[in-house]
Amino acid sequence: MKSLIKIITLSIVLLISSQVNAQDFQGEATYKSKRKIDIKLDSTQMASGMADQMIEMLKKQFEKTYILNFNKEESIYKEEEALSAPNPQGMDVVMIMAGGSDVLYKNIKEKRFANQNESFSKVFLIKDDLNEIEWKLEPETRNIGDYTCFKATTTREVEDIERGISFDDHEDLSTTDKEPKMKVITITAWYTPQIPVSVGPGNYHGLPGLILEINDGTETVICSKIVLNPKNASKIVEPDNGKELTQDAYDKIMDKKMKEMEERFRPNGRGGDGESIEIRIGG
What we know:
single chain; disordered N terminus; 3 helices; 39% strand; globular; two-stranded parallel sheet; 12-stranded mixed β-sheet; alpha+beta
């Protein structure tokens, strides 16, 4: 009986998808991101209440809103501008994040992307081929808003970066000089064939429907709003500003810059007064 229900549900979804696919359409999806924060701060090295302020500030840093404009062949993904959360008084916080992007253009038909990214006060234009993601289609379904979504999973090897925390005149707890440990993470996606485009938030793509949610174990990005064929649709234009280079070349530059930044903010290696906290986020 359950199998029959699933077959009927899938048939309805595919019927709706074929109707949407028959149209030349464009859509706009809004995504919200949240990240788990699991960082232990030594309260003996901070003023009373500073640790709580730090955790709240970090949570705000990772609560972002993104807009994805898409059609059948192209998409543009960028963060909605918002005011940054202020640092706690007397605390200099350095956020070193990997894998970010300012404007991410993807061309599914031509299997390529262009990522316009401002890092360390320089604008880069990363152009390369889209990675082919080996998705495993799962039988589970769930609803996200008005859309029936299907589950898909994939795995990826990433650096197991410890959250480094350093203070002036205290032992350096960062992992700069250690060989990076690797771990395999499982990424879960929920996509809807009701919107038959092979795109999604960030670097995710390659499923038979728009990806409405991504979870990699620490970060969740979920769609909160979809508008199909908006009256004032934003034009999808490939970015062309910045120093052009490949993804591999960009990664090498960022790795070098991050090591320089970590060295600069190590105890006994940083000028200035006050406390400094360094948080490294892998991606």
